[in-house]
Design brief:
The protein is of the alpha+beta class and about 375 residues long. Helix content is about 50%, strand content about 15%. The strands form three sheets. Strands 1, 2, 3, 4, 5, 6 and 7 form a seven-stranded mixed β-sheet that branches. Strands 11-10-12 form a three-stranded antiparallel β-sheet. Helix 6 packs across helix 10. The longest helix has 21 residues. It starts with a helix and ends in a 9-residue tail after the last strand.
Amino acid sequence: MYFLNNKTAQIDDLLARAAEKLQLDRTRREKIESSYKAIQEVLENDPDFFDTKTFEIYPQGSVRIGTTVKPLSRNEFDLDIVLHIQGRVYEQTDPMRIFNELKRVLQGNGTYKDKVESKTRCVRLNYADNYHMDILPGCQHSADDENKIVIPDRELKEWLISNPRGYAKWFLNKAETIKMTLLEKAYEAEEIPSDDFAAKKPLQRAVQIIKRYRDLFFEETPDYATSSIVLTTLAGQLYQNQDSIFETIDGIVSQIYGQVNLSRLKRIKVLNPVDSDEDFTDKWGKEPKYYSEFIRFVESLYKNWQKLKEDNGIVEESNILKGVVGENIYSDSVKQQTLITEDYRQKGKVFSSSATGALGSKVVSDKPVKKNTFFGK
């Protein structure tokens, strides 16, 4: 079996399974989609402001680019959506008007009135059952770029430029440079039906795993955890079109580690790839503790990944991976992988090398392994 013969493919299989367990399942995705479609309908029926506007609502952030990760300590997802009003409405509208009109409609609706919370740039709906939704209101900035919007800032009381849809397009274009993942190739070679998890791009999986390690690393000090937008942007900028999740993470983390060590006296900057005037890491300049904690995090992940590249044996590798994705997630992923291996064994497709006794596929071995009936027969 290919991922029994190839260490990188074997780890990729485990990482993909772990990431799959961390993300939104289909039921929750469908529930979230129905939630923001319901909000669009409520706004369309508003007779005082939104009925005269053309707008759409769409997800942004990790939901849009496929990099969601379930929080550690709670069964809750954060959903970020955009209320994108078409046309240059902002030129005749005070920044706070859009924000206040959105809040007014939601507070006046029986379904949402007790869920509304004002944030700096969005209106939050706190759902009781397992997630909250942040609605970012914005207006199209110009006719030249339908993705670029201006959004109101409650503290500054002015319009700020944003481009969440443009950012998602940038990231997904990076991810799609690989047409077939290492796992897809491995499953195809072994004539195993490929689950959807094998097709998800290495860059998306890498971001999920890096974010998961971030959550574990900062579990005791969550206030200093590096933001997802910084990690996602770095990953997209440093991705070198690897078809393997393991090699993608290795390449990204090694480059970040190198940049940090070359810039000890001056912090690195992570700029918005679709708006270079926006520094996602401006907080690092104002509060250096965030940057020093980022360095600690990068150094820790880098050292762990270097250990994985060595021949430490299955026990040490298991301990490292447990530390990266969490013990329960790792254990469940190993169980799934074992079931596939056992299925291969039952079909007589796993062979034992007459020279080493190691398990493998027909490609590298020559002695069939007896079927395991679990009854000693």
